[in-house]
Specification:
Layout lengths: L1 H5 L16 H6 L2 H33 L5 H10 L3 H11 L2 H11 L5 H19 L3 H31 L7 H55 L3
Helix pairs in contact: 3-8, 3-9, 4-5, 4-9, 5-6, 6-7, 6-9, 7-9, 8-9
Main location: membrane
Family: Belongs to the exbB/tolQ family.
Pfam families: MotA_ExbB
Length: 228
């Protein structure tokens, strides 16, 4: 009876207090080694997100082209208005228009030379579209490895603490090393997955622009090859 009256803090036998742990507390519990690795992974995540959105906007701008662009180019070329066609390409200022502009500047030369000039210009355009995309691929592979490095470091710390515990195994002694091992692994996998998905999405978007450039280049070359 007395226990019931006094016991606001007294729990029934066998009942335990549920312990919660926030992400910040989890990282803080991982020790200095875990925090350094988490900080590196966070910087990689920020870099991956920045590259992704910067490239998405650049690729979207590159893929935007007037549906009537090629018809206007054909009309100018058919009527001998080469300068007007070049001005139209300069106004569009897109990968497709720059390829067509390069081909227009070679009009009068053999068709093979025009095709070669367009292909060379296309390689430069593709290189520009793929700027920093390889960094995402590197992050997607490096982040999990860095996370696993934290796992190894955490396990070494746990074994070291266990060795210094005089043979008595206590979970609080092992906690810091285990937190480092687990949190860095999870963080590395998250960053790697995000970077990998971002990389694949950019590759698909870039391929669409490349196919668009190839289609318009072939259309332009076919027009030049038409009998007059």
């Amino acid at each position: 009876m007395q226990e019931a009256q006094e016991g606001v803090d007294v729990l029934p036998e066998g009942e335990s207090v549920e312990k919660t742990l926030s992400i910040i507390e989890l990282i803080a519990s991982g020790g200095m080694a875990g925090q350094v690795i988490i900080a590196i992974l966070f910087l990689l995540l920020v870099g991956a997100i920045y590259i992704y959105f910067e490239r998405i906007f650049a690729i979207k701008a590159a893929s935007t082209i007037d549906a009537n662009f090629m018809n206007q180019i054909k009309d100018h070329v058919s009527n001998g208005k080469i300068e007007s066609a070049q001005q139209l390409c300069a106004q569009m200022n897109s990968p497709v228009s720059r390829l067509i502009g390069k081909g227009i500047s070679r009009i009068g030369k053999p068709l093979a030379d025009i095709n070669t000039a367009i292909e060379n210009a296309g390689r430069l355009e593709i290189y520009g579209l793929e700027k920093n995309v390889s960094v995402l691929a590197t992050i997607s592979g490096a982040a999990p490895m860095i996370g696993f490095l934290g796992t190894v470091v955490g396990m070494i710390l746990a074994i070291f603490e266990l060795a210094n515990a005089g043979g008595s195994i206590q979970m609080d002694v092992l906690a810091s090393g285990l937190y480092t091992a687990m949190t860095t692994t999870v963080a590395g996998l998250i960053v790697g997955i995000v970077a990998y998905m971002a990389y694949n999405h950019l590759v698909v978007k870039t391929d669409k622009v490349v196919y668009q450039m190839e289609a318009h280049s072939l259309e332009f070359l076919d027009h030049l090859n038409e009998p007059t």
